[in-house]
Amino acid sequence: MSSDQAYLTDDLPDPEAARRFLSLLEERHPREKAKLIKNDGLLSDAVTLAAYSPLLSTTLLQNPEYLWWLNRKKNSPSVRTKDELMEALGRFVLTHSQLDLHTQLARFRRRELLRIFLSDIRRLATIAEITEDISNLADAILETALRSAEQEMDNRFGKPQTNDEKGRSTAAEFCIVSLGKLGSRELNYASDIDLLFLYSEDGHTSGTGTRGSVTNREYFVKLGEAVVQLVGKQTGEGAAYRVDMRLRPHGRVGALAISVDDAVRYYTTDARDWERQVLIRSRPSAGDPEVYKDFFKRVESTVFSKNVTVETALESVRLSKQSIDREQKSERGFNVKLGRGGIREIEFLAQALQLAHGGRDRWLRAPHTLISLSRLCDRNLISEAELTELFGAYEFLRQLEHVLQMESGLQTHTVPDDDVRRNLVARRMGLGSISELNSEINKHSGNTHRIFERVFAFESAMRRSNDRIATDANQRIVRMDDGGGLEFPSPPEALASTTLGARISTLFRRHRYQAELETAIDPNAEFGEKLGRFRRAWSRLHTEIKNADMDGEVSIRDAKNAQTALAEASIDTALEITRHELVQRYRSELPSLPVAVMGLGKLGGAGIDYDSDLDLVLLYDDRSDIEEQIVHDVTAAEFFGRAAEIFVTTLSSMTRDGSIYRVDLRLRPYGTNGQSIIGAGTFADYMRDSAAIWEWLAYVKLRAVGGDISLAADVESHVREIIHSRAKDAGADQLASETRRVRLLLEKEKAGRRRSNDIDIKYGLGGMLDVYFSMRYLQLRDNVPDNPEDRSTDFMLRHLYEVGSLTAQDHETLLYGYRFLSSLDHHLRLAVGRTTRLPIANQKALELISQRMDLESSNELIERLTIHRLNIRNSFDNVVGSNVTVREL
After folding, report:
1. Cut 0.90: pTM above it
2. Among the four 375, 412, 557, 577, which has the fewest Cβ within 10 Å?
3. What are 48-71's pLDDT values in tens digits?
4. Residue 726 lies in domain
């Protein structure tokens, strides 16, 4: 590899493994190495596979001709059908006729995995497409093995036969039924394949073979044994698959193949609940599909019974899960499949709700997990937010499972404990560190387990009558007799007696929120009780805003204004609770707290939306006489440090009623290494002497939001003067270069490493940060401070145009692009919850968002989003220049 090609390995998760592959290829196949070096595209593919999978690296070293096959297949469809794979397998068998069939099957599978895993790594296909491709490959191998085994059995015993109703001899047929992940077309790279062998009817073979006639049962049992040998026989190169037949009727002691009549009898009379549950994910993989269709038609009403209660269905699945949990207790590390919040919980959640409701609703009987979840959401059995969280968890956990399994081709599900291997897994997942990997695991497993627990804890609430219209969890249905039989969501109890006009007119008043939240401040109550009261009062007010928003009674701007007012009232309430706690702790009179709360981000811009963090800076008055005004036996730093701790706990700690806000103090001086609260004078000194340009960009939006408002206002004014003065001294070129560098770094770190097709509307290319950074850069460059009367992005973009900082074209692009993104962000939060990523796989959510944005379809939503993002990035480049690339960061 030339020095010009070194970049192909530098950014890989395991560059040393990539270079070792090339060294071994040079040593063993120098001619192939010389050819490979001349093809940059194929070279990149080869070293990428080597860096992600030692197994496939070995495969290429053993079979270098696969490189050129891989080069030809780069532009093939993302998913190959069973028929296409069988055709390719037929050619492979002909060109490798010197090998036994079981070896041919194993080698063919390994070769195809090169193509599939490369597509997986490159994110050229979704996780559903990848697992479908792997499943189609298994089907093709099973079909090929079955046809070969049938030919051998027919040569021995003749063809199996049976008699029809008129006594005429007809052929008896055989079907390989797949169960589990193969049954739902969700097979992993290293999964076992769970199979069930069915034959149509009993009878005898024709006896035209070398061994004479035998019963159909004996014939098909031997046929099944032959298939298992061809597909599952271990050789020096391994087997094509590990075949698991334990899920057949009567398990290990049952016949390997069973007639349809016997199978129907077993599943309708003797099978345990979990065995019937297995059939949810079943289908014909090879042989005659009519045999399976006949079988499933006769057992379907037993699998999906109309008579089963919700409680019974969920209890059955719960017992299966508890059995798995008991087996998992001794295992160290996180098990992606069976661990708490793992893939099995997603699968069991879907299957439990299918069993509970599928008997009365055939549409819910879908074997594929993602399709099943989507349909359950359509029937309002899980919420849109839960669907998106489960989709995200499923995608992440399955990709993690694939990375683990393609390390060496083993059926492993456990994330390694040691730091070196865990760090390598993180990089292969496109994450920058172990902490990022752990954070993603915790987030997705936590979401999954929370939803799993919600479903199984409230099974009786999951039943819904057919004539009930589902609404958001915060809405109730009332029927209004207006002659048209229309249905409307009712207001919450707090608003039941108010008219619409009164509701809107009082919705945004901070003092009203303050008055209602003060019910939490009972000096005689314990701290935990205060938190609970605070949370419940806040929840009522927050629900009021959300209901008005969802009913279309307020604009997006008004909804954000209301939420900002509620946040500010919550901050003052938390400060008052903090004061009470300090009085009790230090047994001292404390009429007020000399603390200023400063807002940044959405709070600083007065644009709080659903699930927004509160980006805060906490300051205290550090005048010389401050210690005389507080408790005498502690220092000011100790006292206010304790105050900050109580304040943050009040606003953000989780109670049995939930949390109120997520408080983020990371933008304070020195970040996580700095004190949680500092003196106002010290803060001003830091901004004047030490703050970096990226901090200036953040502090452009600094705003007094609570506490000692006189102190806060003084700080806001003083800091604004400091950063605008420093920006003028720095000069436009330095400001532009640093603005672009920081923006692209956030894009790379936040949006560039996620293995997902979702679109990040905040951190991604052309996202909201492009607008924010463009605007703040211009504010600093041209000394255009925020207007205290209107902190909105709309206002500032218009003002920057009016003062000549923005061209007419860039103003229009950024303004209308931001309005679109802001509206999309708002409706995404309403439909899905806290996320910056538009869930492309969640079609139901996309349709709901499109409808609320008055767009004709989700396609129009994606098209408009794409246009706006490209235009916004172009204007961002116009504003801050394009002299810094991501590679230089």
Report:
1. no
2. 557
3. 999 999 999 999 999 999 999 999
4. 493-730
